[in-house]
């Protein structure tokens, strides 16, 4: 790896403990985590990864880092590795601990606060809480630093050092960097599972924003991996965002200007779509709340385009100036600013607040756009023609709205004829179910709670608003019905959230292809025309049960495969007596044991995707190969010989051959195991490193095995209510029997559509607040959401085909 960024000059050559400035400690972080990361659910969990990656990106902005690697481990711990300068390891002059420990145990400690001779000229880490907050909110953090030819390591537990910084190995001179591994604390976070796509979208953005920087992401849970690397920077970013759209000019407009310590970089391109995509960034940090940089851009764009249109007599037939909305219709723009001191509104860096930025962006972008349009008059005229068309459509929509108002179609007083309203008038207590067709509508109307639940049946598929202008949308009967029912009105000037009649708008469609399409059309409508409903958490998707279990007169509805599996175990052991080696155990203990057995085997079998489960099973169940043993080569050779013999004895049955090689690992003062696996299908090269043996994934496997190993060769006996007794010589056979017996005499139905349920079943499973499951619709990434809707609902076929092909393997239980 090279340590020089191709596009950014180095600053602050010296990066030592003297440059680490401390402002305060960690006291409040675990007590009020939401103040620092937004929340303790999905957003906050991913924010922790962003904080560590942002620190590495700061090294890239300073000119010292060219590559960042992110790994999601099977236990949802995360490792971030960069090839920057490495966090300082020398003792801090006033704090009495190493600078590395200080950065991770003190709030507002870092090289970004030292104004005189600081390590960073430009940084996204304004608040200086990233590393310390992640440490405070993690069960453990392991830090490894390569600096001055040596490797250093230190571990933390819930914010506190587990021991001092230690030197653990050596590396070649000139090799530098930092590796951070952390495990989010289950006592803090409600959600512990990372979403690959969410992280991939974020890192893709970072790579676009930092021209030439390489960011790789690997998910060890699925073996999925991607490399994000763009030499074209923002130009490639805009082209990527517009890949599913038809552009009206060939190349994105690119402007890069600077004034003193401020840098402004923008890329923009118009498409034939009817919505705008504006994304702002400050020091490579996304600002979904907008801010002064976006305000400056909008002002410059409106001013320059109006001036050009007037000067070139391009506004014939338009009575007034073009509005900002007219000019931004169909535009995709990335606005990136870099400045010395960021001022954000809110701790989660949502909106840029630097007042001076608005004027600087307005001036620099205005000058850049003016020059571009003078040099490219045909592009300027094409853009203005689209804005003129938008203005004409805006006027047509105004007239259409007035006409429909006169006919009382969009007035909030009336309700659609086919709709069944609820009796309650308080919106906070009211729900509306949007269903497809009169058949499902009839069942829902009969099954609902009339006091709080309204039902609106839609006839067929609504208009695809991705392909329609506002005036066409107002002419669609189904959309008119929906607007009437909600009561909010529609359009920027007419929408009023306070008039919303229902605070739960539930999309309830079948699980077949048509149902999925209708659901997507409705989500497109809400995303494009009623984003406030999504932002305020008012849109939900109903989740009917996937399975119905029926045995005799008994019925049970189960939401997914895991629930079905657990129920089958309970169904078998209920009323039965189970003995292990003659000792009676409770039904609850039996269920737990079989779930442990199934969990362990599912966990270890999952390694077949990227490793070999048989080898792993043998090492765990029949050897003493663990982290400590790797440091002793002679003992490792003995254990590896034992594993090799066990696998060789099974060769004829498994058709697998294993060759082992032990390699010294100087960095960690240990050894790693290289494996060459030969099968009838192909050969694979595998590796077991010290890191794997100290990972949470390995400990999970060990704990899973420890939970069942003493029962593997036990004798099991189960006697049912009728006195019928069965005996088994091991846990494998007993577990297989329990699952199959749970299905005995039962009818298991997998539901495909709402029409298969009568009103009582629909109420009990999908509409009853005590039993139902609803999915709340949230937009975590507005850029990627725009992409998905453009790909799925736009005119371009090729991007949609690519999307379907790339996601086909992720589909399960497809009903066609």
What does this structure look like?
By secondary structure, the protein is of the alpha+beta class. It has four domains: 212 residues, Histidine kinase-like ATPase, C-terminal domain (Heat Shock Protein 90, 2-Layer Sandwich), CATH 3.30.565.10; 168 residues, Ribosomal Protein S5, domain 2 (2-Layer Sandwich), CATH 3.30.230; 169 residues, 3-Layer(aba) Sandwich (Rossmann fold), CATH 3.40.50.670; 132 residues, Ubiquitin-like (UB roll) (Roll). Helices cover 38% and strands 21% of the residues. Strands 2, 3, 5, 6, 7, 8, 9, 10 and 11 form a nine-stranded mixed β-sheet that branches. The protein has a five-stranded mixed β-sheet with strand order 12-13-16-14-15, sandwiched between helices. A five-stranded mixed β-sheet has the order 20-19-21-22-33, sandwiched between helices. Strand 14 and strand 15 form a beta hairpin. Helix 16 runs antiparallel to helix 17 and helix 16 crosses helix 23. The protein is flat. The N terminus and C terminus are likely disordered.
The percent range for strand residues is 15-25%
The number of distinct structural domains comes to 4
What is the CATH level 1 assignment of the largest domain? Alpha Beta
Low-confidence stretches: 1-9, 803-816
Shape: flat
Describe the sheet with the most strands: 9 strands, mixed
* Cα separation of the termini: 49 Å
How many beta-strand runs?
Answer: 33
Number of helices: 26
Question: What do the pLDDT scores average to?
Answer: 85
Instruction: Give the proportion of residues in helices.
Output: 25-40%
Radius of gyration: 31 Å
At the fold tier of CATH, the topology name of the largest domain is: Heat Shock Protein 90
SS-based class: alpha+beta
* CATH hierarchy: architecture of the largest domain: 2-Layer Sandwich
